[in-house]
Amino acid sequence: MAAVVYFVLIPMTYACTAIFIFSLSWHIVRVVSGLRISLAGSVGPEKRPKFWGSLVESLLFLKIIKTHPVQWFLLILFHITFLFLIAGHIELIGHSECLQIVPHEIFLGAGFIGLVLLVNLSFFLFRRFHSPIREMSEPSDYYILILLILTVLSGSQMNLARSLYGYSTMSVADYRIFLSGLTTFHPVVPDVIQSGDAGHSILLIIHVLCANLVFALFPSSNLVHTILTVPLSRLQRH
Amino acid sequence: MSYKPVKMKKRNPDPGPGRSGDSPSLTGAEDVVARAIQGLGIMHATACMHCGFCADTCHIYLAEPKLENIPAQKFSEITRYIRRRHTLSGRLFSRFVKNGELTQDVLRKISDAVYGRCTACGRCTLQCPVGIDLREIIRIGRKMCAAVRQVPEGLQRTVDNQIQTGNQMAIPREEILSTLDWLAEDLKMEMKDPSIEIPIDQPGKDFLYLINPREIKFFPLSLLSAAGVFHAAGASWTLSSRWFDVTNYGFYAGDTPAATELTRRVIEEAVSLNVKEIILSECGHGYRSFRWEGPHWIGQEYPVSIRSVIELLDEFIRAGRIRVDPTMNPERTTLHDPCNLVRLGGIVDPQRRILRRTVGDFVEMTPNRENNFCCGGGGGMLSMSEFGDVRVASGKIKADQIRATGAKIVATPCHNCADQLIELSKKYKLGVEIQAVVELVYNALIR
Predict the structure, then answer these.
(1) Percent helix, strand, coil in chain A (nearest 5)?
(2) Which residues numbered 95-134 in B keep a CB inside 8 Å of some CB on A?
(3) Could you tell me the domains of chain B?
(4) Whole domain around residue A130: which residue ranges?
């Protein structure tokens, strides 16, 4: 069991992160060069402002704000919450003054971030059970959503355990040892996790496993929309 | 005959699929995708989240809510092929799965989707939160089909007509000249001016006027009106008896070499007649193809400028070159926005300014402008009898829009749309008259 735990937390994390970073870089290079070629060949009336227009349109989902206001609200909420989630993980790596402008406990959001994400992801998943989205969906649409739900669920539970029922065996310091070790290439699995005595350490392992799989599947899934949306909107404006 | 090349911004060379004769080889279709994949273009198909937001933007889906009518579904076969052939994971696992293989059967499915269930109106693109240009993917699908001669028979026949005879309806030159002759006689009587003529092949004029062959055959009043308005404005213009066709069915078919040839002929004719400008008759896809796509196809900017007659009429009215009286058109009139002219062409306000000056009671449809629904007759649908049922059924959305305005006249700056709207009026008992914008201007002329 210790070997499995070690494999998931260290080598697999490095491998999946490497896949994610290389594929993301490849996609970015591909998008930049592709955008240049496409812009040279684009035809039709221009729409201004080109860059800022595409940025605002993409980030605020302006295309569906009038026609699907409920989905628009949930999408906006989901993406904003995702940004908070990233900030929260940065704070788990090490102390950040700028993120503590508004003083708060770690993890950021007092449990609400995970809750909001879960509500959103569940909505996105259950929406797929209804026609015609059900027939349109491909297997990858489901497994990415399920992996994200499992990641958020296990992550939220780790956070809520401390605030809701005073769980304190695994502290923020333990997470920091683990995450800062990974980022400085001196990986350490804290004893409290490795020993399996911590109870909730299994949640950390599920959390990391699912997150690793999301990272690894990123390049072959439609999650590439994260880096395509702004360039595509820009292309439509020429 | 050749015209002087003009330097222009370097564009992405798009030699098109090439006409592959009757060869069933799929190489042409594969080449189309391989070329498209170089740009950002088709790669974005793989980013589709299958969210379904595009569904309720499509008039074909709204009229018949079936899975295969959802815009994102229409290119699903193309996306599968791209994933299999042009992504790392696809290449790694392609030997284990058949999904995404390009076969004659798959191409037939693509052909059915891109020609028979889509008018390439681009409305779905307006609502894709990821920013996917769904219309562009549909066009790539059409290019794939054109490369392997999978274009529906009616549309292919029209392209061939246009290439072989110079006009999509294959009207003989003698018939054209005789029609123009009696139209000129009619105009003289209507305007009570024996000096009026319809100039043909006259060099050195300000502009060459391109018309839709349907104006010669079925809508001569539209051509008569244009000639009358040009006369009233004191315009210097000419028609060509050789290359006069404003339409470009190569564009509809996805047959880039044919589209290029049709564009090149007209530009050369304009140069040979030594005109300063080409004015395009009321035609949505004609405007899109000549104004926007043409320079891309022939690889250089035109030596003459290009405008729609709508822009010219707007200029005549605003400059006071013609005087109009809106009481001459007292009936309630609404406006249909052709997709290729408005959403994809950028001509949005001139026709509205014209109608406000020439019509007594002008009302907008809802939605309108760039958000307007396709009439159902776009994308070459009118030439493909095999998809007639889909075309008429999908026009119900437009019919409902028209009915809601309470209008008696529907103005549309596109003869293709006019054909469809006439059929919709009969089918859905709208009791409306369809008129070109120039006809309303002619009616309102203070002579």
Answers:
(1) 75, 0, 25
(2) 125-133
(3) 27-148 (1.10.1060), 158-317 (no CATH), 322-444 (3.40.50)
(4) 2-237
